[in-house]
# Entry
Amino acid sequence: MHGRPREYKNKLKDPKAAEAYTKKAPAIKQGTTLVLECRRQHRYDQAALTASEKMLKVVPEIYTIWNYRREALQPIFAAGGEAAAAACAAELALTQACLQENPKSYSTWHHRKWVVAQGLADLAKELKLVGSALALDGRNFHAWNYRQFVVKLMGVHAEEELSYTSSLIAADFSNYSAWHYRTMLLPRLYNEDIATVSFDELMATASEQKQQQQASSTTAASDSAAADDSSQQAAAVALRATGCFTGTASQSRPIPLHVLEQEYEMVHQAFATDSADQSPWIYYRWLLGNSLAHLSQAQQQQQQQGGQQQQQGGEQQLEEARVVLGEVLAREVSRFAEHLAVDPDAKWPLLMTARLKEAQARLGLAEGLGLDSSDLQQQVQELYVRLQQLDPLRAGYYADAAAGKAFVVVQALGTV
Amino acid sequence: MATSGAVTPADLGPRSKLLVDKHAAYIASFSTVWEAADKLEHVATEHFWMSGMYWGLTAMELMGRLQDMDTDKVLDWVMSCYRPEDGGFGSSPRNDSHLLATLSALQILALLDALHRADALAVTAYIAGLQQPDGAFAGDKWGEIDTRFSYAALLGCSILGTLDQLDVEAAVHFVTACKNFDGGFGCTPGNESHAGQVFTCIGALSLAGRLDAADQDLVGWWLCERQTRSGGLNGRPEKLQDVCYSWWCLSCLSILGRLHWIDQEALSRFILYCQDEEDGGISDRPDDMADVYHTFFGIAGLSLMGHAGLAAIDPTYALPVKTVQRLQQQQQRQQQQQQQQQCGQGMQEGGSSAPSTG
# Structure
């Protein structure tokens, strides 16, 4: 569907290719019929499962066949023991084979997650596997999604994942996915108290819940149904592990100033290496947002302390925060001035400069810079008007920005 | 070789205009896709036939060519995909129920003014049953979580007029938790922004009346940065332009009132350049193979930009504006009828408690 050249049509006019092509269609149709007929007869024997395997390797998106496999697997996982371990290995092998052909299949990745959530897989191996997938395609969001799932279950420390992103970025500044992941990790590492839940803890929670349920339940359940149920529950809880991994949406504090400095350094290296790539420039806006958040936090604190003895200290902190922010903004403006001295029509440094000056104007920092406030506003407008000429595709956005109707340098904190 | 820097030629030659007849014939050839036993692209896509039908039918309606489709047959086929045991629809009669297929089925029924054929209570219960404690929606009972499903659930119930049966506040909370540093949204909390997910999240927020939860300037800017030199839009930074993003990005910008932040003329020319002037249909990129998916999204994108000869499309429902207006009128009438019934009941009860005359 994506990226298939039209010459493919001509290829099919070749009789051999056409024959292979036409054979495939009935094979898929009949294969599906066979598997679903087995299911209708409640057949979950090896022959039926092998047929389903063959189908999935060709068309991994047939979600109904994955459903059929999971129905077959549920009692096996519930029973535990060697059979369960073998089943786990088989499913990991199958999904790996499918992913090699189609690394972006939603249903395949989900099945693998479901299998791993049964608690029998070697998570370190899973981490290695997803690392390989990302080495092949660093932007595969399915793989990134899976990585976060595994990392969560393993309890990998944010520090380790942060170095992972650093190495990816060092190898290729264009890896937007790695920059994005940093915005998830930095708040966790430096400020958030989100506990990483290990798989054992998840299993313990699940069996606790089950015990509570059984205690309050009045209906008797057979042993196998109870076992089935608890394995389902644990799987469900583990699958939900992905849902707990919030990032910037729940960021409640800006990342520390000294860390911000390191990040500014990092992006400037990226700018110097490849100034056309969007990734570090978009990341940069988030850094600015964090810088702004230090000021807005100090403002909040000062307001809360109003009227108390500590008012003096609060005001001092606020003034300090203002000075620090002012220095950062001014420094950044001069760094981009260096870029513009070499290439005066470079879009990204111009856009950053416009936004930095806009932030300075909005925060009332013009005076501190020895500028007239309206002069600063004028400069901002001129920059946006210039960008309309230099980047005409986005002229409409720049027009709104020039009119003060589109402001994106906002403090970075989340609301969730 | 396709690159993000590939320029769309000044002269589009045979592709300068929207080739409505060609596209209508192309789509009509899929009119009863379940009957086309031999074609590989039909057989190998059974897992999304329902969505394929929705894309094809809606594209035809936008072009004013719905009558070329066998809509009676289609309706019967859609209903044959309904599974009363759980209240959902499968992507085909023999595929299990799934939220995405259910949404597509409801969109088709709405388009063809046949919603009365659905058991609204049962389908609503199916959708509501997929909501998780944290507000997210699973795609089916096997638990895959994705903001696509949040959109499918909210839109499905909006079409049925039963949005109040979902925990909308929790749904919004989950969607908001998927918001990223760039103002965009990912498939689950912590995942990278992607235009398709941005659409489903902005769409969901719009349906919930909670667009305030989006950083509108920021995400609007991120979206307008998707436009490449070709005039086409990509789905993420440093990725290739693709016609389907003409919809995913454009509909968001439309919902956010920032359609003017991209160059519509350049995008229109890119979409037109992606047409297959020989066999009809639109492809992801110029000179690639066409498919119904890209044909629909290319036409939908052109419609959003007011392309002459196309009916208007609603950016949130991804259905013709006419369809959505009819839906809303029908729902209003239903509400009024319910209110009248309640009033009538109240009067009866009041009457019966009055003392009888001796």
